[in-house]
Recover the amino acids of this structure.
């Protein structure tokens, strides 16, 4: 690779990350097609070590051989390295790795017209249920080619496809607005089922036919798989190795201790074929793998990228990812610790069984402002956006203007009622069962 | 340059679309980020690319690219995908008229960051980081992030508009985490952001000290007890509140195809008391993201969203304006060439009222003084946002610090409960930005004087 060679003319060590991607998003709002789009991304990132110091620079590329711009990039990275930190790690050498399936031919062949048709069907079925619904749908398919090469002889390439659908539904009755959001994504066409999204949407609309109110006080709360993100979000920052290094994780120093209820099992697994967060190797060339994070409530592992693992004297776990939230232009950011696919194992109970057990409580399917409260401490405090009142095991109506608050570590240690058996994929890279807990503080209007 | 201009004009003339626009962008950026005692990120990035958007047979086709060669083929590609889109639409999209714009806007900075040595930049940010780290033993970690960028935008459309605009953006974010024991972990942060030069981030040691001090103080603050309170919002939090909870509702792209919402959001509807005025002021030079023209080449305007308590305007793109028979307001914005412009806010604020801060405190038996925002989200009429820190108010006096203050409500009720508006408007640009439709972060500013709101629901244990 030319850029790597140029880099090594000036520096001791170097690593190049290149991406070439083509995405096709189509966007519907209020049931009508807004636009169809073609998005091309070509970019590269150069990380090098010169005189022991790290430097980093990125640039978009023209796609051709661009000797001049490559050399400019090397100069930028060198300039950065003059002030960079001492590199606490070495770029990884090649290691034996099985590549998983990350490219789906059927998905590659999907045309914009077919994406539009998928959107129209989804909207049509929802409008059949209620012609006054406002339905927004985004669909996007993409094909990206990633290459990572470094001065230790590593040179990896992978083609990855993805399909994502987001659905947002709004129902207005008088001054009351009910709206919710669902999404699905994966690396294969079969992985993403518009019909499942439709079924989820219809269930929510049926539950919401009546509205009601709750008062205040500690309560039993049943979180749907989607709602469980409220609990998962603070945990995420706890087992992220970077936060452990920074001293902002309450899980620091607790490896192999019983932290949560013994029914709680959580793994990070980047090798689930078809899932949204799957890939053979992370953005630093470390092979992904399956790791237990909580096993029977015992804390087993933290997640690490290369640099953080070195700072913590741990092994990298294949969780060094570039700005995933940013989409294909995430190549510009340095790799940092992040999850691949997170899976909370299902329990013994059915959703109905958990519901039946709740005498007085609420069912939470979504909140506003995920991450509000103090996630570092495990604290959440949210206004519910999609929630229902439960009385004697029955859903009696939708509630709004209701705050829920609690501490995830406490709830999952002492307050766990049970986990549902049917873990579902939420948004493509999280698989979560319904979770029922006792002791959430609820402040409603009633 | 002249060559590029004539090439662009030729390509646009040849477009099969009824309307075609081209946006080219080049950005040079630098980031310096300390985490704890180490310099985690010092990096340069260069971003070059473009977007073609064409309206053909009443449907939008869009293509974005990094390779600037063969612009003609990009236009053809956009047209092809636009035809597919048009075929799936019942109603044809049209655009409101806009004046042809031909202009060149150069960058101005008091202290051009391109002329400041990298070593000096690094040492300044490091000094802020040290200030926080060494403030107190309980400060466990810090983040000090400096970002500068210079964007050059070229915009042209098939109606003859041709604009060249340059804009700098400088932000500094300082955060501290303090810790006492296993689970008492508290964060504090502050940030500045302006469309300016290096002067924006000089002299911020005081800010660093305040951030560290606040994180430490939060360790001993009690969590707020959930319930309903009279709340005084400081200008920073009130600014975020008006942006999140009300500004987004006034973005016409939420409303223009939504008949039910139109019934709710009608001009003249009473939202608040007569002393309430809310503005989106499109162009205030020097503020983040401020340019004379939006990303459709429309001149940015000052739009009253609420005048004397009544809904008085919406924010428009050319498409929403056509549909709602209104004038475009210059609010079509895109975070970069990777995105088409959508309706966004700019500088959004509540105008000053007449009340002094002391008079806001008067008569508050048990309330909360909530300061600065940690974040916020809205879902149409429902909103939620969290204060970075807060104090109890008892018998008209500010008392102990409290933490974990998350405010929530329904905007239709809450704005009516704004019962006093301070006389101390402040407009603030932070290091973050606004997110919508997958486009984050868009530089905006928010502002307000102190405002007092009755009967606000606060979550908590």
């Amino acid at each position: 690779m030319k850029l790597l060679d140029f880099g090594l003319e000036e520096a001791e060590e170097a690593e190049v990350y290149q991406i070439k991607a083509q995405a096709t998003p189509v966007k519907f709002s209020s049931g009508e097609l807004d636009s169809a789009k073609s998005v091309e991304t070509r970019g590269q990132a150069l990380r090098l070590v010169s005189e022991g110091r790290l430097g980093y620079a990125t640039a978009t590329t023209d796609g051709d051989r661009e000797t001049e711009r490559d050399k400019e990039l090397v100069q930028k990275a060198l300039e950065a390295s003059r002030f960079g930190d001492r590199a606490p790690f070495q770029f990884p050498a090649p290691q034996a790795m099985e590549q998983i399936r990350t490219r789906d031919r059927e998905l590659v062949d999907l045309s914009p017209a077919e994406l539009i048709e998928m959107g129209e069907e989804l909207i049509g079925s929802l409008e059949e249920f209620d012609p006054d619904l406002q339905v927004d749908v985004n669909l996007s398919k993409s094909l990206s080619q990633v290459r990572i090469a470094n001065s230790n002889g590593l040179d990896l390439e992978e083609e990855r496809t993805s399909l994502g659908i987001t659905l947002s539904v709004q129902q207005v009755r008088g001054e009351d607005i009910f709206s919710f959001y669902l999404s699905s994504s994966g690396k294969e066409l079969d992985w993403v089922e518009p019909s499942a999204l439709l079924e989820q949407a219809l269930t929510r609309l049926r539950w919401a036919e009546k509205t009601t109110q709750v008062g205040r006080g500690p309560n039993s709360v049943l979180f749907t798989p989607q709602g469980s993100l409220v609990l998962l979000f603070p945990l995420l920052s706890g087992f992220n190795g970077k936060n452990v290094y920074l001293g902002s994780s309450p899980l620091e120093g607790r490896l192999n201790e019983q932290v949560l209820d013994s029914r709680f099992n959580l793994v990070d697994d980047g090798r689930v074929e078809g899932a949204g967060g799957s890939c053979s190797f992370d953005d630093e060339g470390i092979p992904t793998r399956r790791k237990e994070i909580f096993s029977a409530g015992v804390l087993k592992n933290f997640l690490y990228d290369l640099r953080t693992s070195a700072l913590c004297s741990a092994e990298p776990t294949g969780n060094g990812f570039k700005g995933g939230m940013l989409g294909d232009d995430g190549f510009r950011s340095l790799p940092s610790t992040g999850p691949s696919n997170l899976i909370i194992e299902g329990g013994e109970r059915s959703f109905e069984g958990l519901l039946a057990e709740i005498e007085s409580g609420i069912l939470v399917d979504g909140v506003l402002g995920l991450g509000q409260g103090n996630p570092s401490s495990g604290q959440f405090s949210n206004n519910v956006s999609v929630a229902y009142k439960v009385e004697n095991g029955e859903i009696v109506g939708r509630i709004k203007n209701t705050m829920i608050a609690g501490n995830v570590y406490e709830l999952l240690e002492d307050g766990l009622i049970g986990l549902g058996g049917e873990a579902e994929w939420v948004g493509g890279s999280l698989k979560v069962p319904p979770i029922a807990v006792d002791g959430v503080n609820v402040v409603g209007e009633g | 340059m002249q060559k590029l201009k004539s090439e662009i004009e030729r390509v646009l003339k040849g477009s099969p679309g009824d309307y075609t626009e081209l946006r080219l962008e080049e950005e040079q950026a630098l980031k310096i980020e300390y985490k704890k005692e180490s310099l985690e990120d010092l990096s340069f990035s260069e971003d070059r690319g473009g977007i073609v958007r064409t309206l053909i047979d009443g449907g939008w086709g869009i293509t974005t690219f990094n390779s600037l060669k063969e612009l003609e083929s990009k236009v053809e590609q956009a047209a092809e995908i636009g035809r597919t889109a048009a075929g799936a639409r019942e109603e044809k999209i049209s655009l409101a008229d806009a004046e042809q714009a031909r202009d060149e806007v150069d960058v101005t900075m008091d202290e051009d960051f391109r002329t400041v040595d990298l070593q000096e930049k690094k040492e300044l940010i490091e000094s802020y980081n040290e200030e926080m780290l060494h403030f107190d033993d309980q400060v466990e970690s810090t983040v000090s992030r400096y970002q500068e960028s210079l964007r050059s935008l070229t915009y042209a459309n098939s109606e003859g508009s041709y604009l060249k605009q340059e804009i700098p953006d400088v932000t500094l974010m300082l955060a501290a985490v303090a810790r006492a024991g296993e689970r008492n972990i508290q964060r504090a942060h502050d940030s500045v952001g302006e469309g300016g030069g290096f002067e924006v981030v000089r002299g911020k040691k005081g800010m660093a000290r305040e951030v560290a001090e606040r994180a430490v103080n939060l360790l001993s603050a009690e969590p707020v007890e959930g319930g309903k309170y009279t709340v005084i919002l400081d200008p920073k939090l009130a600014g975020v509140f008006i942006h999140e909870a009300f500004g987004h509702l006034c973005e016409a792209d939420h409303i223009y195809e939504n008949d039910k919402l139109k019934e709710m959001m009608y001009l003249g509807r009473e939202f608040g008391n007569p002393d309430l005025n809310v503005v989106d002021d499109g162009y205030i030079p020097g503020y983040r993201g401020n340019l004379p023209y939006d990303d459709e080449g429309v001149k940015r305007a000052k739009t009253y969203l609420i005048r004397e308590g009544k809904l008085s305007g919406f924010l428009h793109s050319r498409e929403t304006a056509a549909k709602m028979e209104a004038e475009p307001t210059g609010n079509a914005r895109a975070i970069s060439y990777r995105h088409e412009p959508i309706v966004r806010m700019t500088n959004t604020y509540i105008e000053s009222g007449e009340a002094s801060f002391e008079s806001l405190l008067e008569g508050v038996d048990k309330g909360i003084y909530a300061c600065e925002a940690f974040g916020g989200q809205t879902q149409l009429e429902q909103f939620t946002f969290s204060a970075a820190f807060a104090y109890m108010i008892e018998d008209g006096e500010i008392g102990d610090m409290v933490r974990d203050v998350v405010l929530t409500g329904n905007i239709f009720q809450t704005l009516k409960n704004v019962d006093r508006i301070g006389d101390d408007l402040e407009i603030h640009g932070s290091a973050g930005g606004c997110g919508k439709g997958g486009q984050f972060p868009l530089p905006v500013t928010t502002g307000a004087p102190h405002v007092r709101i009755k009967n606000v629901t606060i979550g908590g244990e």
The mean pLDDT of chain B is 95.
